[in-house]
Write a structure and sequence with these properties.
16 helices; N-utilizing Substance Protein B Homolog, Chain A; NusB_RsmB_TIM44; 314 residues; mainly alpha; RNA-binding; NusB-like_sf; 2 domains
Length: 314
Amino acid sequence: MLNRRHIRVKVMQSIYAMHQNDSDNLEKEEKFLFHSIENIRDLYLIMVSALVELRNSEISFIEKSQKKHLATAAERNPNNKFINNQVLILLEESNPLSIAIEERGIDNWKRNDDYILILLEAVKSSEIYAKYMETRENTFEEDREFIADLFVEVIAPNEKLYEYLEDYKLTWVDDIPVVNTLISKQLRQIMPEGRDAFFVPRLYKDTDDKDFVRDLFRKTILNNQELAKEFIDKTPNWDTERIAEIDTIILKMAICEFLKFPSIPVKVTINEYLEIAKEYSTPKSSIFINGILDNLVKDYESTNRLSKAGRGLM
């Protein structure tokens, strides 16, 4: 579920939070870091379960409409194409999904069903829904394309849903795009049965990724002063107090990878942190950071301080 770049972002944010809170409790902050990463799984399950609850809510609406004393012909004989959507049914019947939701205690939509009603209204007023409901017959291919498009164009960008998620857990702000991209990819690749049917992805690709979280966090924090000395002399035209705090953290993390993570290629480290700087720091930060890192790499190579081996990890 998590890629290396997002792991780096989570570590960077935790180090920044430590600085802002003037905390030196490494164990406590590391525990919070892993907790915030674990919560990404909950975000994923909440978003997927919203699709299941949308179908359940529409089933309830149809049943109530049919029982009305003066039900219209359309209410008595509704188009059930949406509730018969094979992808939604597959999600409803997915054992891995049900088990994960139960294990993590995900019941957000039971306690906040008003958001499901808001989403259902947005769905039913969308052009995607109107076009889909022009017929009554279901094919798996059409059902899959409809749900994938609906998620990307209607559900994921819904402002009310975003506000709810942001209020529920502030640490999710940067996780939402990652999770939504993953779900979108899964929905477009989902198959009706067999080994390619819907599954709940692992949080970490492997144990190396989980170790990377801990090692990058600890090595950057524990070697803070040593890492700072590496680039202070390389910024003669910059007062150290003028360097954005995020930039100093990014530089320390990158230098830490240069010197203490032999399996990660230099180019990978530079590219990853330049992209992070573009997104999280000032407009000119990536240029500044690139210049510093490029000079450092030249120095390290000339003094044989770089010791890299292996294929590298992304």
